[in-house]
Amino acid sequence: MKEFTVVLYAGGNNRVIPDSSLPKSLLPIANRPLIWYTLQIIQSHPALASSPLLILTSGQYRQVLDSYLSTLNITYELVTYRQHHESTSGGEDQQQAPDELGTLDVLRSCYSRIRTESICLITCDLFGKVNLTPLVNMFR
Asked: Per the record, GO CC terms (predicted)?
C-alpha cells in the first residue's frame, strides 16, 4: 500500500492577470508553467513520486489544466471543487458576496478519493529547490 496521497492544490485564481483564462498554476515562469516546478519537486522525492496524485482545481480551470497535464508523463486524478459556499440565506434581495472556501472545505471534495492513511498537501506555487524529506519524515 502507498504511504501518502499527494494532494496538489492548483485551482487558485490568477490575480496577477485577472482577465486571463489561465489559472495561477499555469502562469509561465522561465518558459514553464508554475505547476511544472511543483511537479518536479514531487517527482524528486522517493516517497511521493510513486504516490497517488490528486490535483484540485476549480471548474473554471479544469479543462485548460487537464489539457496541459495530459502532455506530461504523470499519472494524476483531477478533482473539481466549488469555489464558494453555497448560499443558505432565504432572501433574494440580500446582496452578499459569497465566501470563498478554505483549504479544509476544498479537501472535502477529494476525501473519498484518498486511499492512504496520510496525505501530503502541496500548493502549486511551491517553487525553487525544496527538500520535502524533513517534512515527510516528521509525519512518519
From this structure: cytosol; eukaryotic translation initiation factor 2B complex
* pTM recorded for the entire structure: 0.81
Going from the N-terminus, what domains does the chain have, and what CATH number goes with each?
4-86+97-139 (3.90.550.10)
HEC secondary structure over 10-43: CCCCCCCCCCCCCCHHHCEECCEEHHHHHHHHHH
Rg (Cα) of the chain, in Å, rounded?
16
Q: Measured between alpha carbons, how far is 83 from 23 in angstroms, rounded to an integer?
A: 13
Q: Which residues neighbour 38 within 8 Å (Cβ) at sequence distance 6 or greater?
A: 8, 10, 25, 122, 123, 124, 125, 126, 127
Residues 6+ apart with CB under 8 A from 140: none
Cell of 107: 479537501
The per-residue pLDDT for range 42-83, each reduced to its tens digit, is: 999 988 999 999 999 888 889 999 999 999 999 999 998 866
